[in-house]
Amino acid sequence: YKARNRSVYLPGHRGWYNLHTGQHIDGGQHIVVDAPYERMPVFVPEGSILPVGPEMQWSDEMPADTIDLYIYGGKDAKFQIYEDEGTNYNYEKGKYATIDLMYDDAGRTLTISQRKGTFKGMLKKRTFNIVLITKANPLPLSLDTRPSGIKVEYDGKEQTIRL
Asked: Whole-prediction pTM value?
């Protein structure tokens, strides 16, 4: 197929990042972007946290012991990681865990909250690889290679990391 271009409108309430290039684009405008058959254009708003775990074919194939946290700067951000056994309905009985993530853009800090909840087989420790994307530090999302970031060993206790 021949490469194609598409006109995309990015709303003006914030800036946006091109997921494939990391380039920052101001909102409130139409832009023309590459849209080849094999890659859809995707834009992430400022103030987003995008967790990316290992590639798996099914939910309990392997533990997600390392998670890349792509943080798109420019605004504050919040995200909640939810986990359960993934193979049954025990979550209906309260068998799940959550971890809140809060990014403060002005202070350039990420707070990883204390884990809430528990379930059978839950990882007690994991590594977060934190990658801050900014106008000055554009970086594409990569599903093939792990990006260079700040490695944080997390054991369920709250931590605040300066980025």
From this structure: 0.91
